[in-house]
Amino acid sequence: MEAITVAIEAAHKAGEVILRHFRLPQEVHLKGPADLTTQVDQEAEEVIVHTIREALPDHEFLGEEGHTACYNAENLWVIDPLDGTRNYSLGIPWFCVSIALAVKGRAVLGVVYDPVRGETFYAEAGKGAYLNGKEMHCAQKTDMERAVAAVGFLPARHEENPGLALPMLIRLYPMIEATRIMGAAALNLAYVACGRVDISFHDRVSAWDILAGALLIEEARGVATDFAGQPITTASRNIIGASNAAFHKQVLHVAQEVLRGRPCSPIAITSHIGSQADH
Known about the structure:
Blueprint: H1 3-21, E1 28-32, E2 35-38, H2 39-55, E3 60-63, E4 76-83, H3 85-89, E5 96-103, E6 106-114, E7 119-124, E8 129-131, E9 134-135, E10 148-152, H4 165-172, E11 178-180, H5 185-193, E12 199-202, H6 207-219, E13 223-225, E14 239-242, H7 245-260, H8 266-273
Parallel strand pairs: 3-4, 10-11, 10-12
Antiparallel strand pairs: 1-2, 4-5, 5-6, 6-7, 7-8, 8-9, 12-14, 13-14
Helix pairs in contact: 1-2, 4-7, 5-6
């Protein structure tokens, strides 16, 4: 069975688990400041790992709910079983499953599955991007004033908040048409890839939040890099995804302006270079 088929099957099985418990009473735990998890997150990750491991027993796993491996492993599955846990815990139907396969740090396939809407976004490197089997492309807008941006950032009091995305949004706000803050980075990036929004940026994320979505954008003829303009890898900790090079260039310029204009705390420096050190 091809890896992309396995990944889609795993995402759909996880989606079944997620929907089965949606809006039912459940315990919510804090893994860290403003970092929520539920039993559903853990159960969905186990379903994904089990499904993939049956088909590809030699592969390794890096997951938000506890699976750990070398970030530069030969074949590494990077998993967010429930991106948008806070939305999920509040009964807000905006969340997804995100799965990527990375080879030596770079994504070679990605799946983002929205179980509420039954939408499966997927891509393989060099083979294009698809939504429910139909090829998808980024929007073809050329006027920044018509662009819609989907943005994400940590709560103000979060100890790891680098304080970049909000100042970026303030600077970009007069240049664009509208903004959305929806609470699931992987789904934001998928929406760039399918043309529903034009820009998405996040200033403190993990590989499982962005790896699949970045590949979707690239295969849908968009641009995705970190705040330093470098390719997205398993070590990246921030992202700018845009429907075209011109929009990306403008957001990247704003990101670097904000970086130059703020104190260089350790968090800011880490965010800027995307944590490129080996893990």
